[in-house]
TrEMBL record:
Keywords: Hydrolase, Metalloprotease, Protease, Signal. It comes from the Bacteria. InterPro entries: Peptidase_M6-like_domain. It comes from Prevotella histicola. Residues 126-334 form the Peptidase M6-like domain. This is M6 family metalloprotease domain-containing protein. GO terms for biological process: proteolysis. The keyword Ligase does not apply.
């Protein structure tokens, strides 16, 4: 009768204890293959997978190998290696579900780093990188645009960053001392960063790179001499990534003119031995603007949107010299593009967002954290190597935990962000897409048909959870004892979390008898007075209680009726992103959670306590009203609130 214990418990503890930024990295370059030397002297051909968190090699027959630095050989593993470090939460100023405006003229520090055994391949690397990073319409050899060109294009001039290049500085150790593999990740890249910072501190005013006035320079970049591991598979090389010194050493690196914390790094050379393009640099720098990785960071070899996004392997397009444009989702995220909500009708001559065209959004009206973004993509400029052209759709299923923990697309069954080419007849919640076509000038036409389902009495639904996908036993089928509520929890919406959670029959089960737990509901966005309603029951105990906490303000506990689902409601004010938790004592069953904007003026201070609702009317299967008290009814199946309920 008890739900399954969540494996997220350890991660949640770390998130609460530490305030830092998630470890972000570039994924393995697709197609990196080599013959691995094994302990017995034989070799096996395998493909590089993973990222800085955990890297491994995969053969065509799905055997998994990892490098063993002590013996210099590869060892077969029974499973994909887990990341060595749990990924931590981002700072609250960079949480990925809401728009984070990044605009104006900015400066970023770039430190060039060579090693005791590896110099830059060019005689004047500082001059080279001043052009590669800052050049206007920069074209030289393989280069067809600088990093500054890239961000000017993405922001349509709203974000103008100048990269101040210092160095190169030579470190005291060879590259392998910082980059060798240790339990699935690089051993000491942070030592490269701290040593290099100390060497350039006298040349740098860190206040110049503090964008928000907190005394800490933003997103310092490092370019290190030689190759990286992500596109070569060389185990002693540093894998490009972004991380935080606070997590590494427990504190920021302090200097007379300011402090350093978050950093990112990229290699000088690509796998061909040429100076690498700006793709990896722009991917890692974009993490500093708040964007999460969109490939599977749990190292499954799943690239998520793949070449559709620079936050996956779109950074590798054009061999890294022509990373794809930001998607409309990513541009909206950093405040460079506004989304227009779609209505039924025809849309003609829609240009790309790089040409001042519009991007459109369709929301799930029962959960506005789920939505589709529609935009036009044209194979030109930074999108010259884009996989498709025409209508591209991004589906978003926002969950504050997965965004903060950089695990947006780690569940293949429920991607947080997915991208694909829009197709005629495709369903977008209550709408249908049709009549898609591309004009000769590259603009786009399409039509949308359908309407939103209105909510009665002027109310607007902002969140709804039916639990109808929960296919266990217990609750609505009249069963409360024995092996109930033990099926895998499968709600309509992602974002639910409790240490113990499971499925009953079209209801959710949370907690454990006589124990205290916190149940986290999915976050939602609303502005105004809201009403929450739900059904709840205690399981085999009259001692089960529930109290509602909204944005930290707690109401009084309610005592739940044993083995009987009863309706409750409460009213509260919402101002933007809202977090609701239920403090539980004992095991409880929950069903039909709904939150609506009432349309009434906000006037409530704190939380209005949850109160029982009037019993719902009960109907038999012929639709006849039979009263409100199920206890007085004979055994059978009845309709309550449009659901079948078994009375035993």
């Amino acid at each position: 009768m008890i739900g399954t214990k969540s494996v997220k418990n350890t991660i949640i503890v770390i998130v609460l204890l530490l305030c830092s930024i998630a470890m972000n990295a570039s994924p393995a370059w697709p197609g990196v293959t080599k013959n691995l030397l094994l302990k017995d002297g034989t070799t096996v051909k395998a493909h590089l997978n993973g990222d800085e968190h955990a890297k491994y090699w995969l053969t065509d027959d799905k055997r998994i190998f990892a490098y063993e630095p002590v013996n210099g050989v590869y060892t077969e593993l029974s499973e994909v290696p887990k990341p060595k470090d749990f990924i931590m939460t981002r700072p609250t100023s960079r949480i990925g579900g809401t728009v984070q405006k990044v605009s104006g003229k900015r400066k970023s520090l770039v430190v060039l780093v060579s090693f005791a055994d590896q110099d830059f391949s060019v005689s004047d690397p500082k001059s080279l990188y001043q052009h590669v990073l800052n050049g206007k319409d920069y074209k030289n050899g393989n280069f067809n645009g600088s990093a500054r060109d890239y961000f000017l294009a993405q922001s349509q001039g709203k974000f103008d960053v100048t990269f101040d290049v210092v160095g190169p500085v030579k470190l005291s150790k060879g590259y392998a001392k910082y980059g060798y593999n240790n339990n699935g990740r690089d051993a000491a890249p942070e030592e490269m960063v701290t040593e290099a910072l100390k060497k350039v501190a006298s040349q740098v005013n860190f206040k110049d790179y503090d964008w928000d006035g907190d005394g800490v320079a933003e997103n310092i970049m490092f370019v290190y001499a030689g190759h990286g591991e992500a596109d070569t598979g060389e185990a002693d090389r540093i894998w490009p990534h972004q991380w935080s010194l606070v997590y590494y050493q427990g504190y920021t690196q302090r200097f007379p003119t300011g402090e350093a914390n978050t950093y990112a790094c990229a290699p000088e050379l690509n796998s061909n031995g040429d100076v690498a393009g700006v793709g990896i640099f722009c991917h890692e720098y974009s993490h500093g603007l708040g964007l999460p990785d969109l490939y599977n960071t749990a190292s499954s070899g799943d690239y998520g949107p793949a070449y559709y996004s620079i936050m996956s392997i779109g950074s590798y397009l054009g061999n890294g010299y022509k990373p794809c444009n930001y998607s409309a989702y990513e541009k909206n995220f950093v405040g460079w593009v506004k989304l227009e909500e779609l209505k039924s009708g025809e849309y003609k001559n829609v240009a790309t967002t790089n040409k001042n065209g519009k991007a459109f959004v369709v929301y799930n009206q029962t959960n506005r954290n789920q939505y589709y973004i529609l935009e036009n993509r044209e194979r030109e400029s930074w999108d010259i190597y884009y996989p498709v052209q025409g209508l591209v759709m991004t589906s978003v299923d926002y969950n504050s935990n997965t965004w903060a923990n950089n695990t947006v697309n780690n569940d293949p069954q429920r991607y947080g962000v997915a991208m694909h080419q829009g197709q005629k007849g495709e369903k977008l919640y209550n709408y249908t897409l049709s009549n898609t076509s591309i004009n000769a000038n590259g603009t786009l036409n399409f039509s949308i048909t359908g309407t939103d389902t209105p909510t009665p009495s002027g109310e607007t639904t902002v969140f709804s959870e039916s639990f109808d996908n929960c296919n266990g036993t217990g609750g609505n089928d009249g069963q409360w004892d024995g092996n109930t509520f033990s099926a895998t929890f499968n709600p309509d919406n992602s974002g639910w979390y409790c240490d113990y959670q499971g499925s009953g029959y079209q209801c959710g089960s949370f907690g454990y008898p006589n124990k205290d737990y916190t149940l986290y509901l999915p976050q939602f966005n609303a502005n105004g007075q809201c009403k929450i309603s739900f059904k709840a029951a205690g399981v085999e105990s009259d001692n089960a209680t529930l109290s509602m906490v909204i944005n930290g303000a707690a109401g009084n506990p309610i005592h739940l009726k044993k083995n009987t689902l009863k309706g409750y409601n409460g009213t509260f004010d919402s101002n933007g992103t809202t977090t609701i938790t239920f403090r539980l004592h004992g095991q409880i069953v929950l069903d039909d959670v709904k939150i609506v904007l009432t349309g009434k003026p906000t006037k409530i201070d704190g939380v209005v306590n949850v109160i029982p609702t009037e019993p719902q009317k009960v109907y038999d299967l012929q639709g006849r009203y039979v009263g409100k008290d199920t206890k007085s009814l004979p055994k059978g199946i009845y309709i309550i609130g449009r659901k079948k309920v078994v009375v035993r």
